[in-house]
Amino acid sequence: MTKDKYYIIDFDSTFTQVEALDELGEISLEGEENKAAILQQIRDLTNGAMEGKSSFTEGLSKRLALLKANRRHLKPLIQLLQNRVSDSIKRNKEFFQAYADNILIVSSGFKEFITPIVTEYGIKEENIYANTFKFDEQGNIIGFDKENLLCLDRGKIKLLEELALEGDVYVLGDGYTDYEIKEAGLANKFYAFTENIVRDSVVAKADDVAPSLDEFLYQHKLPMAISYPKNRIRVLLLENVHPKAIELFKREGYQIETVSGALSEDELCERIKNVSVLGIRSKTQVTKRVLEHANKLMCIGAFCIGTNQIDLNSCLDAGVAVFNAPYSNTRSVVELAIGEIIMLCRNVVDKSTKMHQGIWDKSATGSVEVRDKKLGIIGYGSIGAQLSVLAEALGMDVYYYDVIERLQLGNARKCETLKQLLEISDIVSLHVDGRTSNKSMFGAEEFAAMKDGVIFLNLSRGHIVDLPALVEAIKSGKVRGAAVDVYPYEPASNNEEFVSELRGLPNVILTPHIGGSTEEAQENIGTFVPSRIMEYINSGNSYQSVNFPNIQLPELKNAHRLIHIHQNVPGVLANINSVLASNQVNILGQYLKTNEQIGYVITDIDKLYDKKVIEDMRQVPATIKFRILY
Ligand SMILES: NC(=O)c1ccc[n+]([C@@H]2O[C@H](COP(=O)([O-])OP(=O)(O)OC[C@H]3O[C@@H](n4cnc5c(N)ncnc54)[C@H](O)[C@@H]3O)[C@@H](O)[C@H]2O)c1
Ligand SMILES: O=C(O)[C@H](O)COP(=O)(O)O
């Protein structure tokens, strides 16, 4: 421990999340008729002083007069403040205890409530500099000790001058009065603390911004409760990812950047630099080249089901874990498909278009019920299987074909070949995934094998169907109705025109890839994907990753966690363990899972170890990525 560095920490809105005098007002003015108005006056006075817009001393007198507080109000105030200590302060108690000699609380608040809060964290009473109240005989707060420097304008400066600390001084606070210490030349650096409140005028003057105490500790190489400040994790969200996701990432403390549409490969290559988490939907292509430009990427969130737009193998080579939302929009796709099947069987789209043109075309010709019709589902995964259940409830006979063995639901019948399904079905609905081998799996041959006058739906992926063959089948009457939601090329944003040979064809429903675009689905996805990503970042848990070996890890308790991603070649685990053994590291638990490409080893170790082990782990041959968690 060094004696020549001092850390000056503010109390209100820094050590605690709140301004104590505002909270005192909430308590002391209970039952007061115009409480809200008085509290607002108190808050305005606090903010005026904190932003450097008004005299501190004058504001303090006015605030105390408005408060009408009594000694008996202090106990509930202290209880409240104990629960409102800033999160990053709470988790870094160890720092306060270890550096007690060097930490000073300098506040224009009052010792009566500051002392009981901060001493719990190991801060020494003699290192607390704050005002004190004056009480009358009935215990009413009637003023403050006017001899105390901290009640004066520029009081913190006067105090620091008097203290004449020898060594480097760093100030952490949210208010203008904290900045003034640095301005007066009494501190090396002022950090605007923005975990609880961002005061633009203070941030503008600060040498640096500390969105949490972690950032301050990280910069000063001081002991930290977590391994990496969360504000350093940059998240890039494309394609209008739901606001819920933004909210969750923000709450976690990450830095968020959003783009409303997709980005081209070149644009993404540029934007991906320094990004730790990339969030996309079905449009953005994450290619090998994009990954080569990603210097910090830890994981990708596909805020959808399909992941064919991501080069999953290159992600493995780069140690980037991919997560998606495998079930969040399943129901939405199925509901749309059911609706479209009925609309197409009744020619509703064309009839509706005619009505808008003033044409009354009442006829039953070509309109049929869906009951007793044979629905052929290609791809009996989550969507296919759920469609099967709802279609049966409507009285349809369901047939399905899948390349893998799938449990048949209800009375659905399995077809051994695609041809068999095509020959039997009145309605064919495609729900396979977008893997490369499925490109153009549906072409002239498949349409030819279908019944005449079939109804065809594609809500899976655009590249699966050969579009000219579909157009031909519609024009020839082979397909008498179609619903298409996905296209080989889709506009990058709503501002781009949709160009396709499908436009203008009869009894064809065209939708702009909205199978999964319902409010419910998007909100579910916006919650689910960030939860997986945060689990992965915070604990290493890779459960439900699309490409990583899936490991569900126990909670990290009283240990440090070494997370090692490596190429799956012989001998890596042996090398890891030999590094740990040669550094005399005590292993508390070890978990390994591999897939064809990578190995994922998690080792929980005793907190006391030589930091050299971290460098040694990075040097293990075949290492792709290594990080440590605590
Ligand atoms: N339109 C939309 O907005 C929208 C929304 C969600 C999903 N999707 C697409 O739908 C696809 C399916 O979603 P899911 O959740 O049911 O996926 P899933 O992985 O649960 O099911 C896909 C099924 O298709 C089967 N399959 C793959 N290739 C096949 C082939 N050539 N022949 C027969 N069967 C084959 C697989 O074995 C699997 O059972 C997604 O991959 C996505 O591309 C589109
Ligand atoms: O894969 C999916 O979930 C769908 O294709 C939806 O994609 P979107 O999020 O781009 O609408």
Automatic annotation (TrEMBL):
Gene3D superfamilies: 3.30.70.260, HAD superfamily/HAD-like, NAD(P)-binding Rossmann-like Domain, Phosphoserine phosphatase, domain 2. It is an enzyme of class 1 (oxidoreductase). InterPro entries: ACT-like_dom_sf, ACT_dom, AHAS_small-like_ACT, D-iso_2-hydroxyacid_DH_PdxB, D-isomer_2_OHA_DH_cat_dom, D-isomer_DH_CS, D-isomer_DH_CS1, D-isomer_DH_NAD-bd. GO terms for molecular function: phosphoglycerate dehydrogenase activity. Its EC number is 1.1.1.399, 1.1.1.95. The keyword NAD applies. Pfam families: 2-Hacid_dh, 2-Hacid_dh_C, ACT_AHAS_ss. The keyword DNA damage does not apply. Keywords: NAD, Oxidoreductase. It comes from the Bacteria. Residues 561-630 form the ACT domain. Pathway: Amino-acid biosynthesis; L-serine biosynthesis; L-serine from 3-phospho-D-glycerate: step 1/3. It catalyses: (2R)-3-phosphoglycerate + NAD(+) = 3-phosphooxypyruvate + NADH + H(+); (R)-2-hydroxyglutarate + NAD(+) = 2-oxoglutarate + NADH + H(+). Belongs to the D-isomer specific 2-hydroxyacid dehydrogenase family. Catalyzes the reversible oxidation of 3-phospho-D-glycerate to 3-phosphonooxypyruvate, the first step of the phosphorylated L-serine biosynthesis pathway. Also catalyzes the reversible oxidation of 2-hydroxyglutarate to 2-oxoglutarate. This is D-3-phosphoglycerate dehydrogenase. The gene is serA.
